[in-house]
Design brief:
The protein is an alpha+beta fold and 414 residues long. Helix content is 53%, strand content 15%. It contains 20 helices and 13 strands. A hairpin with a 3-residue loop joins strand 2 and strand 3. The longest helix has 17 residues.
Length: 414
């Protein structure tokens, strides 16, 4: 497994671990993954300098404890020569998302992880090549990592429960597979699960697939009406469909896409969710934003200007519609006048991904017809919406969000 792929799995597993209360024996995965997540949030395509307040705000935004975890993570990033610290701030080297994944893998490997941690990464990659019977998976990780049968069974139980791999009972056995953004060869991998469906269920699934091919994406409500709530949950759980959510003061709104709408533009990395969040916000700006607040009209020119490294604006909407992207350092937003803001793209590759998706029709302007007339303040990607079927998720309050954004924009502590 190459380092980029391993780093991607470490980030994936770390996100899963944030949804459980006890990380158990996956401490090195969790630490390396949080190092990667913070590096991704801090870095941009070019070298940059951040204040201590901005660093703390970015850490809070990705659920890193400022007191308990941040100092150790910064120590590690400095040891890896990825940042330079002084009394007033942090200098961050220009790092791409692909490089971030490779650094994440290096941090994990240098920490001397235990066999169980290495096994769940290998298991996830194995299950993404082809659905694997649980018995064979147990035998494989036992032989590969010299784990006794009982412990291998425990590893698989934890992998299923935490969500490192997806599982579905088929007949008298169980299949393990990869139902997340890193999948390849969708049709082949889910064939074993879909073969258990009745002819009526298969017909409903084909109808939904045809609609998604024509329209790019549909609302979650409409998708569930086509196939039924129970069947949709089953298909969603195995990764046949992605559910993305955007939220604002009027609520949370979900839409469904096929994973291939994004995966054909990139390898497995954090750019997926960032690009989807960008597409969501841009589409919102095209079809819902009023002219008085800065409605997007010429999207290709706007995006090209951002990709070329220029500022865009000023507009009221810029200060409201890209808050999630600010917290992940995809864009930089600055106030320029009363209630007016300008914006600059920090992660060029994410902007290029988002532009391709919009211009090539995989998320067209008809994709989100039901978004309300309010600013986008949150985005929930496919992995968390899938996890939300089984776990209660905690969301930041509006006041907390506002404090974090103010610190990121101004570089000052409250």
């Amino acid at each position: 497994m190459d380092k980029k792929t391993k780093g991607a799995w470490i980030i994936h597993h770390t996100n899963k671990l944030q949804q459980v209360t006890n990380i158990g024996e996956y401490e090195q995965i969790n630490f390396a993954g949080k190092c990667g997540l913070l590096l991704s949030s801090l870095s941009s395509s070019e070298e940059s300098v951040l204040t201590i307040a901005q660093v703390k705000a970015l850490a809070k935004a990705i659920n890193i404890s400022v007191r308990l975890e941040l100092p150790t993570i910064l120590d590690e990033l400095e040891t890896q020569k990825l940042i330079l610290r002084n009394q007033t701030g942090i200098e961050v080297l220009g790092v791409t998302l692909a490089a971030t994944l490779m650094h994440t893998a290096s941090i994990f490997e240098s920490a001397e992880p235990i066999e169980r941690e290495q096994a769940v990464i290998e298991l996830a990659e194995k299950a993404s090549d082809w659905p694997i019977k649980r018995g064979l998976a147990q035998e494989y990780i036992g032989d590969t990592f010299k784990i006794v049968s009982a412990d291998a069974d425990s590893v698989l139980n934890a992998a299923e429960e935490i969500g490192f791999v997806d599982a579905e009972k088929v007949g008298s056995g169980k299949l393990l597979f990869n139902g997340n953004l890193f999948r390849r060869d969708d049709a082949t991998k889910i064939n074993a699960v879909c073969s258990s469906l009745s002819e009526i269920e298969m017909s409903k699934m084909r109808e939904l697939n045809e609609m998604l091919v024509k329209q790019g994406c549909l609302s979650l409500k409409e998708s569930e009406q086509i196939v039924g709530n129970k069947l949709f949950k089953k298909l969603h759980s195995i990764g046949l469909y992605d559910v993305n959510k955007v939220g604002n003061e009027k609520g949370s709104f979900a839409f469904v896409t096929k994973p291939s709408a994004f995966s054909k533009f990139s390898q497995s990395d954090d750019a997926f969710d960032l690009a989807k969040a960008f597409v969501t916000s841009l589409t919102y700006g095209m079809i819902q934003s009023e002219a008085s607040r800065g409605r997007i009209i010429m999207i290709s020119l706007l995006m090209q200007k951002l990709i070329d490294g220029h500022w865009v604006g000023p507009a009221t909407a810029i200060g409201q519609d890209y808050k999630v992207l600010e917290m992940r350092r995809v864009v930089q937003v600055e106030p320029v006048a009363s209630n007016m803001f300008r914006m600059k793209l920090l992660k060029k590759e994410v902007g290029e991904l988002a532009l391709k998706v919009i211009m090539e029709g995989d998320a067209s302007t008809e994709s989100l017809p039901s978004l309300p007339g309010a600013s986008v303040t949150s985005y929930t990607g496919p992995e968390l919406t899938r996890a939300a079927q089984h776990k209660h998720l905690n969301y930041q309050s509006k006041q907390h969000l506002g404090e974090i954004l103010n610190q990121i924009r101004t570089g000052r502590l409250e």
